[in-house]
Amino acid sequence: MKFNNINVFISEKAVIGKNVKIGDNTVIYDNVIIGDNSIISNNCVIGEPLNDYYFNENYENPQTIIGEGALIRSHTIIYSGSVFGSNFSTGHRVTIRENSKFGNNCRLGTVTDIQGYVEFGDNCWLHSNVHIGQQSKIGNFVFIYPYVVLTNDPTPPSNTCIGATIGDFSQIAVGTVLLPATKIGKHCLVGAQSLVGGKFEDYSLIIGNPGKKIKDVRDMQSKDTGKSHYPWPYNFSRNMPWEEEGFDSWKLKNNYEND
C-alpha cells in the first residue's frame, strides 16, 4: 500500500492520532477525531456534513469519533455525529449516515448501507450489500450476511420509524428481510431469504415467508460432527476473542454472562 499525499484535505478542527495513514483524494471535515494507528484509504470522506450544512451559515459539524486501529477502505463515506469503537473496519463503498454507534471490533462489508441512528454492540460482522434502516439495534457478536435488509416503516410512507432489534450472537442469513419492530432474541438463526416480523425468543430457528420458529437451534445437528452446532461460540472461534482459550474460559475471564 502506498499513499502519495495527493489532494488530501484535513480540517484544522480535526484531531488525528499517532501513526495514522491517510490516502489520496480523501476529505476529513471539522470535529473529526481519528484514533492512533488507523488507516483511511483513498477517496474517503470522514465527517460528511449533515443536510443543514448547505442551508445554515452558522452550521457546526457534530463530532465524529473513530477509535484506534481502524481500517477504512476506499470510497467509504462516514457522516458526522457517529462514534466507532476500536478496530473498526469497512469494505469499499460503504455509507454510514449520522448518529450511528458501533462498539469495538465491528466490520462492515463492501457496499453496506447504514442509514444512521443505529446502535451496534461489539464484534458485529456485516457482509457485503447489507442495508440497515434507522433505529435498528444490534447486540454483540451478531453476524449479518449478504443482501439482508432491516426495514423500519410499518405503513410506508409515514413518519413512524420502528427499527428491528437483534440479540447477542444471532445470525441473519443471506437475503433475509426483517420487518419494522421485529425482535430477534439472542443465539437465534434466521434462515436464508426469510421474511420476518414479530417477536422471537432466544435460541429460535426462524425460516420462511412469513418467518416462523421451526425449532430450538440447539436441536439442530451439524453435518460435520453430528452434534449440535449451537450455541455457535462453542464451535466457532476464528478471529473471535476466545480463539486461543475457548469460549467458557473467555466468558469467565471477562465476566460475560449473556449466553
Biggest β-sheet: strands ordered side by side in the sheet: 1-4-7-10-13-16-19-22-25-28
* Helical proportion, percent range: under 10%
Please mark out the parts with pLDDT under 50 across 5 or more consecutive residues, or reply none: none
* CATH fold topology of the domain at 1-114: UDP N-Acetylglucosamine Acyltransferase, domain 1
Percentage of residues in strands: 25-35%
Average pLDDT over all residues: 95
- The end-to-end distance, rounded to whole angstroms, is 40 Å
Name of the CATH architecture of the domain at 1-114: 3 Solenoid
Number of helices: 1
Give Rg in angstroms: 20 Å
In one word, what is the shape?
globular
| Number of DSSP E strands | 31
CATH superfamily of the domain at 1-114: Hexapeptide repeat proteins
The SS-based structural class is: mainly beta
Instruction: Return the CATH class of the domain at 1-114.
Output: Mainly Beta
Q: Main beta sheet: strand number and arrangement?
A: 10 strands, parallel
**For this entry, what is the oligomeric state of its chains?**
single chain
